[in-house]
Design goal:
There is one protein chain. By secondary structure, the chain is α/β, with parallel strands linked by helices. It has one domain (2-199): P-loop containing nucleotide triphosphate hydrolases (Rossmann fold), CATH 3.40.50. It is 43% helix and 21% strand. It is built from eight helices and seven strands. It has helices at 14-28, 49-55, 73-86, 102-112, 130-136, 138-146, 161-174, 191-199; strands spanning 2-7, 36-42, 59-64, 91-95, 118-126, 150-154, 179-182. Strands 3-2-4-1-5-6-7 form a seven-stranded parallel β-sheet, with helices on both faces. Strand 6 (150-154), helix 7 (161-174) and strand 7 form a beta-alpha-beta unit. Helix 5 packs across helix 6 (138-146). The mean pLDDT is 93. Guanosine-5'-triphosphate binds next to helix 1. It holds the Pfam family cobW. This is Putative metal chaperone YciC. One of its GO terms (cellular component) is cytoplasm.
Length: 202
């Protein structure tokens, strides 16, 4: 199983981008839907994102009432074991809560995960609210960005060019190594970006 973990603050665009990636995988990689499983982690009792994703015919597993980077880390390992046993999909896409540190999830999986071939972390940055969020919760936002193998600056349709450049400069400073993309989940994401995401999983 290849894992793609989507991190990024509340409302940054994770679910929208997971929908786009799932469709790319199902349409272009001659996969059937059993090859893609999505794990939704939400802190609240009522899942909203899983309903959106299920509506599109995708397989979704829920991990609610806690965060998989801390309280629910063992539940994540157990869920992945169960998914492997029952479906053994090629791709497992994980949506973290907006408050998660993706690097902590990676550490747990490196230590306790089984049957995992590769793990890639994609951090989604809310381009529109970046300035506000980095002022209010700097440690979380910086760490989420630093943990990404790839960083997507999303909602570029809502941000002026000059401000976008400032966001890009900050992101680069927090994570000089990540592959960085500017995009908008509201319009079709370039296939080249999804090809890069799954490139080394083929
Ligand atoms: N204009 C614009 N809106 C976007 C974009 N991406 C997401 N949105 C909207 O932003 C809101 C949040 O998007 P989601 O995809 O639900 O974000 P999320 O990160 O999954 O949110 P949580 O799961 O609540 O943390 C939704 O209303 C989306 O339609 C974008 O690129 N441009
Ligand atoms: Mg979501």
């Amino acid at each position: 199983m290849n894992l793609i973990i989507f991190g990024g603050f509340l409302g940054s665009g994770k679910t929208s981008l997971i929908l786009s990636l799932s469709h790319f995988l199902l349409e272009n990689k001659s996969s059937d839907s059993s090859n893609v499983v999505i794990i939704e982690n939400e802190v609240g009792k009522i899942g909203v994102d899983d309903k959106i994703l299920r509506y599109d015919g995708l397989s979704v597993r829920e991990l609610f009432s806690g965060c998989i980077c801390c309280q629910l880390s063992s539940d994540l390992v157990i869920t992945l074991d169960d998914i492997h046993e029952k479906m053994n999909p090629k791709w497992v896409i994980i949506e973290t809560t907006g408050l998660a540190y993706p690097g902590k999830i990676l550490s747990t999986l490196n230590e306790y995960g089984r049957n995992i071939d590769r793990i890639k972390i994609i951090t989604v940055v809310d381009g529109e609210r970046f300035k506000e969020l980095i002022a209010v919760t700097p440690v979380l936002i910086k760490n989420q960005i630093a943990d990404g193998d790839m960083v997507f600056i999303n909602k570029t349709d809502l941000v002026m060019k000059e401000e976008l450049k400032q966001v890009e400069d900050h992101v680069r400073k927090f994570n000089p190594k990540a592959s960085l993309h500017m995009l908008s989940a509201n319009t079709k994401v370039d296939d080249a970006i999804w090809k890069e995401v799954i490139g080394n999983y083929e």
